[in-house]
Amino acid sequence: MITDQQRSQYIDEGYFILEGVIPSEHLQIMRDACDHLIGIMHEEMDRQGTDHIHISHRGKRYHIAKQYHQAPRLSEYVFGDLMAEVCKATIGETAFLFYDQYVVKAAEQGITFSWHQDGGYLGFPHPPYVTVWAAVDDMTLENGTAAVMPFSTIGIRTLVEHVRDPATGDKTGYFGKEPGIPAVVPAGSLVVFSSLTFHRSGANTTDQMRRAYVTQYSPVPIYKPGSTDPMHLAVPFLQDGEFVYQSPTGSPV
């Protein structure tokens, strides 16, 4: 599925795009999981008496992180054949789930997400990991799709310092005017990019919700600086090209 040209583009430019590759069954699982996890997020907001948790804003934008295990069957996608192929084409034969999150922009409410490297949210040097941004809905400029910045355009392929916006919680690492490459793709598509690749997304100006699901995989566990505690997740997925993930019950996914 992933061509030699796309493998080279990942190395040279930091990204590639695969259109319509998620199986329809998995796409429905991802949609159901999104509804389930937004419901849990609302319950937590109610419990805390707030409409804002980290960079999630009720009714506007949701970033629901590290909850794949809370949604029925979502691990079938997270640790499935498609993700294995992406990992092997980018970070190699050994992979750990580092992070996962839903990125949801509500109808006519979703706000923008500024130019950043995913590594900018770590803030320290790390083995580059791969981000897999999955279009759960059809993606357009109008509903705030993601855009990526090729390495050759920005001239940066290393981690740079980011500045946090105290109002939104966003971090920004690029303030220039380059528009990047927008991912105008159908539901079931993937945008695959490095943790060192700059990317952003626009506002959702349509009357429909815009959902994306992001998984990130690292070639080795990433630890907190000076610690043996994982920075986020360090769930074994592949070892020397073989599936090693097991569900919390101890059985294969």
Folded structure, characterized:
- The strands form four sheets. Strands 1, 4, 5, 7, 12, 14, 15 and 16 form an eight-stranded antiparallel sheet that branches.
- The protein has one domain: Jelly Rolls, CATH 2.60.120.
- Helix content is 21%, strand content 27%.
- The chain has 253 residues and is of the alpha+beta class.
Number of domains: 1
Shape: globular
- Using the CA coordinates, give the radius of gyration: 17 Å
Supply the helix-strand structural class. Answer: alpha+beta
CATH architecture verdict: Sandwich
Low-confidence stretches: none
- The number of helices is 5
Oligomeric state of shown chains: single chain
Instruction: Output mean pLDDT.
Output: 91
Order of helices and strands: HEHEEEHHEEEEHEEEEEEEE
Total strands: 16
Q: What's the CATH class label?
A: Mainly Beta
Instruction: Examine the coordinates and then state which fold CATH places here, giving the name of the CATH topology.
Output: Jelly Rolls
Largest sheet: 8 strands, antiparallel
Span between termini: 22 Å
CATH superfamily: q2cbj1_9rhob like domain
Q: Which strand-content bin applies to the residues?
A: 25-35%
| Secondary structure: helix percent | 10-25%
